[in-house]
């Protein structure tokens, strides 16, 4: 009799990983199983970011994981980083968001665009979780149009003075530094702004129904003065922040796979135990068809992200490819989370089960780092050569 396939990995994608990649996945997976899953439902209920997990996340080498060892980082490849995101989001999107922002949106721009002094000053401490960052690009009125930026930085002698506001900023009230993008007389530039600088304020966004186990903030800049040494010297224009977003979006193509796997596993267990009309729910044809469709979509997403990671490691990744995978994989996970919530029936509306929590979180994931529509239009532009934005 043929061996039964892994219901969460029907195409044995794991066999395509290297030993090191499997070790990374297993290590993060154990951390999620042992430390995250027992408490994350309560953290979501309480709208509390589990900051007590940060030291262990750092100790496992998950912050800035792909950056070089000379800066205190793990020097992993892109596929390993993707697997980190997948396992963390199997726990909760808020935890993966924390790691994504720290790694891709804060440490990456310092590494890619910063001075050697900035790299030495910040990256080792950020990898250790001693310095937390946030990324200030999105503005209250801006959304999908970052070029319409109102935050400005003006030169004043040897300093820069920043005025403006940013919105929907993950880690804002946790952060020790903010990577802030502002209009200057010489185009958009980035600045590393310590959050204890005079004139800087962060305000927590309350009443969230999504990413409740994550800190979301507004940032406000009132004559915030920083020296020129705070400016990221090696990039100008929108390509700076968009390059960071491309790094983060890559990880986001992997993360929702974990959320979808968590929902499918939960509903598989439930449907085998739930007896209706004298038989398990899993024996119902309509339920089996829905479960099969979930497995099909998860398998497609796994193969998309793995090939994306291989392209990234080969230096051949294109932004359109990231957009396609972000669009497909987040939509996949959101649809699966909603369907799993439905199969769970009334029990599915409580955070005793994970489906409703993942569904609510994914409503944010499908919006941030480029909305679904934005990524559809990026792919459309690639196909036609016409910019329809």
Automatic annotation (TrEMBL):
Acyl-CoA dehydrogenase/oxidase C-terminal domain location: 237-383
GO molecular function: fatty-acyl-CoA binding; flavin adenine dinucleotide binding; glutaryl-CoA dehydrogenase activity
Cofactor(s) annotated in UniProt: FAD
EC main group: oxidoreductase
Biological or metabolic pathway of the protein: Amino-acid metabolism; tryptophan metabolism; Amino-acid metabolism; lysine degradation
E.C. number(s) listed in UniProt: 1.3.8.6
One of the GO BP terms on file: fatty acid beta-oxidation using acyl-CoA dehydrogenase
A Pfam short name: Acyl-CoA_dh_1
Sequence ranges assigned to domain Acyl-CoA dehydrogenase/oxidase N-terminal in this UniProt record: 18-130
Domain Acyl-CoA oxidase/dehydrogenase middle: 134-224
InterPro entries (UniProt xref): Acyl-CoA_DH_CS, Acyl-CoA_Oxase/DH_mid-dom, Acyl-CoA_Oxase/DH_mid-dom_sf, AcylCo_DH-like_C, AcylCo_DH/oxidase_C, AcylCoA_DH/ox_N, AcylCoA_DH/ox_N_sf, AcylCoA_DH/oxidase_NM_dom_sf
UniProt keyword annotations, A-Z: FAD, Flavoprotein, Oxidoreductase, Transit peptide
Reaction(s) the record says it catalyses: glutaryl-CoA + oxidized [electron-transfer flavoprotein] + 2 H(+) = (2E)-butenoyl-CoA + reduced [electron-transfer flavoprotein] + CO2
Family per record: Belongs to the acyl-CoA dehydrogenase family.
Protein name, entry field: glutaryl-CoA dehydrogenase (ETF)
Taxonomic source organism: Luteibacter rhizovicinus DSM 16549
């Amino acid at each position: 009799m043929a061996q039964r396939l892994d219901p969460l990995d029907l195409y044995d994608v794991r066999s395509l990983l290297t030993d090191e990649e499997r070790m990374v996945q297993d290590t993060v997976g154990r951390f999620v199983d042992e430390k995250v899953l027992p408490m994350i439902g309560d953290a979501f209920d309480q709208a509390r970011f589990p900051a007590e997990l940060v030291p262990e996340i750092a100790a496992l080498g998950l912050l800035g994981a792909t950056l070089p060892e000379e800066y205190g980082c793990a020097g992993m490849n892109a596929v390993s980083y993707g697997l980190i995101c997948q396992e963390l989001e199997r726990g909760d999107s808020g935890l993966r968001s924390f790691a994504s922002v720290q790694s891709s949106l804060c440490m990456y721009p310092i590494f890619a665009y910063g001075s050697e002094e900035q790299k030495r000053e910040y990256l080792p401490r950020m990898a250790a979780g001693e310095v937390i960052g946030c990324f200030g690009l999105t503005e209250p009125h801006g959304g999908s149009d970052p070029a319409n930026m109102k935050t400005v930085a003006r030169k004043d002698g040897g300093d820069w003075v920043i005025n403006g506001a940013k919105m929907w900023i993950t880690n804002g009230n946790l952060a020790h530094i903010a990577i802030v993008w502002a209009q200057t007389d010489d185009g958009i530039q980035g600045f590393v702004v310590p959050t204890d600088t005079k004139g800087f304020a962060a305000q927590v966004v309350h009443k969230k129904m999504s990413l409740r186990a994550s800190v979301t903030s507004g940032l406000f800049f009132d004559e915030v003065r920083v020296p020129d040494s705070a400016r990221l010297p090696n990039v100008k224009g929108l390509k700076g922040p968009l390059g960071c977003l491309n790094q983060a979006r890559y990880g986001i193509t992997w993360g929702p796979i974990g959320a979808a796997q968590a929902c499918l596993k939960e509903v598989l267990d439930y449907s085998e135990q739930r007896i209706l009309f004298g038989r398990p729910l899993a024996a119902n044809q309509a339920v089996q068809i829905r479960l099969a469709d979930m497995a099909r979509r998860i398998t497609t997403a796994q193969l998309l992200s793995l090939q994306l990671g291989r392209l990234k490691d080969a230096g051949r990744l294109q932004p359109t490819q990231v957009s396609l995978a972000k669009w497909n994989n987040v939509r996949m996970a959101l649809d699966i989370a909603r369907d799993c919530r439905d199969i769970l029936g009334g029990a599915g509306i409580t955070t005793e089960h994970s489906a409703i929590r993942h569904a609510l979180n994914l409503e944010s994931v499908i919006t941030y780092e480029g909305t679904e529509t934005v990524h559809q239009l990026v792919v459309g532009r690639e196909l036609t050569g016409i910019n329809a934005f």
